[in-house]
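seq:
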Amino acid sequence: MTVWAPRGQTVIRADPGRKHTHFFGALNLHTGQDIVMRAKEMTAETSSQHLLQILDAVPDVPTVLFWDRAPWHRGQPIRDVLAANPRLEMIYLHVAAPDLNPQEHIWKAARRAVSHNHSLSRLDGLASGSRNS
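struct:
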């Protein structure tokens, strides 16, 4: 990695590892509430857990979810949640059209606020609020 820094001064080191911190998020377009879930991996199982979290956050009302076509948004766990919760309707967004997804704008603002210009070297430390990651 190449960086510009004054000669003889230590620069902030970034974690070269490939560890990831994943988040699921849904934006309620009526209230502005952002429903977020942190996950170790992006799978159909964790997606189904997030769907249940959304249903808990907006109980007893029909809910339409605009979803992108990520691979972890498909599979039996998703079909099971949809079958058990007929008040949840899915509308799938066009491929490669992130600007149509309101949640993508939230992620962009969050990344700018949380992961830019910080001295912590790992995103999981920022996500948990840790000061010593």
